[in-house]
């Protein structure tokens, strides 16, 4: 491959990166303006970079969530420990939720309204691995991506779709208050 070919490929990669980033920025803006669920305020978009190695998907925004941190307090529970998982030290992360707002009770109707955002976000980010945390996240993912996603996945189940692996996990919301859940979560993560 000649020098000119390398330059052309580099320019093409940069052009694609910029387009994906622009699309992801537009999606974040749309989620932030969303008002599909009356009385619940605006949506909380995912946060991270396109091409992230690891896409962390919770069911709903965490306590203290913001557009820069949709997982809120849960993010700190997970972020530091990810560095200890073989193969993920220094990897890029993307945080998102199946629901973009926090209703008192999660319903399938809420998940359906958010599903297009989730599908587009996963396809734009293009992660190597998506960690699906909890039942609401798994149901939202199935609505977003279709029947290839298991209907009732168990913690530790893995499926490959659209070039990404999806690892089903216990609910991140339980990590803080249940030490045995933390043990299960990290045991599953260490086997990937």
Query: Rg, please?
Result: 17 Å
Helix-residue proportion: 40-55%
pLDDT < 50 runs, ≥5 residues: none
Distance between the termini: 35 Å
Q: What is the CATH architecture annotation?
A: 3-Layer(aba) Sandwich
Structural class: alpha/beta
| Side-by-side strand order of the widest sheet | 1-3-2-4-6-5
| Number of H- or I-type helical stretches | 5
* Strand count: 6
Secondary-structure element pattern, one letter each: HEEHEHEHEEH
Shape: globular
CATH superfamily, by name, is: Uracil-DNA glycosylase-like domain
Question: Largest sheet, described in full?
Answer: 6 strands, mixed
Average pLDDT across residues?
Answer: 91
CATH fold descriptor: Uracil-DNA Glycosylase, subunit E
CATH class descriptor: Alpha Beta
Total domains: 1
Strand content: 5-15%
Provide structural commentary.
- The chain has one domain: Uracil-DNA Glycosylase, subunit E.
- 43% of the residues lie in helices and 14% in strands.
- It has helices at 3-33, 73-82, 108-125, 135-145, 179-190; strands at residues 47-48, 54-58, 93-97, 129-133, 158-161, 164-169.
- It has a six-stranded mixed beta sheet.
- α3 (108-125) crosses α4 (135-145).
- The radius of gyration is 17 Å and the shape is globular.
- The mean pLDDT is 91.
Short summary:
By secondary structure, the chain is of the alpha/beta class. It has 5 helices and 6 strands, in the order αββαβαβαββα. It has a 6-stranded mixed sheet with strand order 1-3-2-4-6-5.
Element layout with pairings:
Blueprint: H1 3-33, E1 47-48, E2 54-58, H2 73-82, E3 93-97, H3 108-125, E4 129-133, H4 135-145, E5 158-161, E6 164-169, H5 179-190
Helix pairs in contact: 1-3, 3-4
């Amino acid at each position: 491959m000649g020098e000119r070919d390398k330059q052309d490929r580099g320019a093409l990669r940069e052009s694609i990166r910029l387009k994906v980033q622009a699309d992801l920025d537009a999606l974040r803006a749309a989620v932030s303006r969303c008002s599909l669920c009356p009385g619940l305020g605006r949506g909380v978009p995912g946060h991270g970079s396109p091409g992230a190695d690891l896409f962390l998907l919770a069911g709903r925004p965490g306590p203290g969530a913001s557009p820069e941190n949709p997982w809120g307090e849960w993010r700190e529970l997970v972020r530091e420990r990810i560095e200890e998982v073989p193969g993920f030290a220094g990897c890029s992360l993307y945080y998102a939720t199946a629901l973009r707002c926090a209703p008192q009770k999660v319903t399938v109707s809420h998940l359906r309204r958010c599903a297009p955002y989730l599908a587009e976000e996963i396809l734009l980010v293009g992660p190597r691995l998506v960690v699906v945390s909890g039942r609401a996240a798994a149901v939202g993912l199935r609505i977003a991506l279709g029947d290839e996603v298991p209907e009732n996945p168990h913690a530790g189940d893995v499926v490959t779709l659209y070039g990404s692996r999806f690892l089903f996990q216990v609910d991140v919301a339980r990590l803080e208050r249940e030490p045995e859940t933390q043990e299960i979560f990290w045991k599953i993560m260490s086997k990937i």
